[in-house]
Write a structure and sequence with these properties.
- This protein is 30% helix and 20% strand.
- It is α+β, with helices and mostly antiparallel strands.
- It has one domain: 3-Layer(aba) Sandwich (Glutaredoxin).
- The chain has an eight-stranded mixed sheet. The chain has a two-stranded antiparallel ribbon with strand order 7-10.
- The longest helix has 19 residues.
């Protein structure tokens, strides 16, 4: 009986480990409902005409996130009208990273003139489901009937430091392929950025 009990506990641990890894390319992502800097609650279901989404985990203070802000704005400008809007989510716990508080999110969004929702993952319930580990960390989703399939995970491009030296525009290329109904040639890259700040 003890052996069976131990096996059951081991199965639970392994299941937790699998879940902790988050989504893989080809998985279907659950919808979420999070507070925007406008004070409104936002979910993917609010976009009935969207063909997919560019879900980006980012934040206020990380130098990598700051370096990519203009590129995120550009992605939304280019592809929201083609059916692939950006939804940015701040995954950091403000008790660990005070610069990423909700109030400071509002300030940052206004400073930069964000044209997309900037949502607060209060309680840090969403980023573990995705398996996000960095800011920024990109997940591109394609709508399949009423579901959202993950088609790309990783970095925005291949140069976090200098936009002028970018050679491979990973997210742009994936979104361009989707909008033209072409094959995606790169579905996963390594996200480069600051670690997500969570309570220990």
């Amino acid at each position: 009986m003890k052996i069976i009990s131990n096996i059951f506990v081991l199965m639970l641990v392994l299941a937790g480990a699998v879940n902790a890894q988050g989504y893989k390319v080809g998985d279907y992502a659950e919808d979420f409902r999070l507070k925007n800097v406008s004070g409104n609650m936002v979910s993917m279901a609010d976009y009935p005409d969207a063909k997919g989404f560019v879900v980006i985990f980012t934040c206020n203070h990380c130098p990598y996130s700051i370096a990519y802000e203009d590129r995120i704005i550009a992605l939304n400008k280019e592809f929201a009208s083609k059916g692939y809007p950006v939804i940015a989510i701040n995954p950091n716990d403000p008790s660990v990273s005070p610069e990423d508080s909700y109030d400071k999110m509002i300030v940052r969004a206004n400073e930069k003139g964000f044209t997309f929702p900037y949502l607060f993952d209060e309680g840090q319930k969403i980023y573990p489901k995705y398996g996000a580990t960095r800011t920024p960390h990109v997940f591109i989703l394609k709508r399949e009937n009423t579901k959202y399939q993950v088609v790309y995970i990783g970095a925005i491009d291949d140069n976090s430091q200098d936009e002028k030296k970018v050679e491979k525009k990973f997210a742009f290329d994936v979104l361009n392929a989707l909008s033209l109904q072409q094959e995606i040639t790169t579905s996963e890259t390594k996200a480069v950025g600051c670690s997500i700040k969570a309570k220990k």
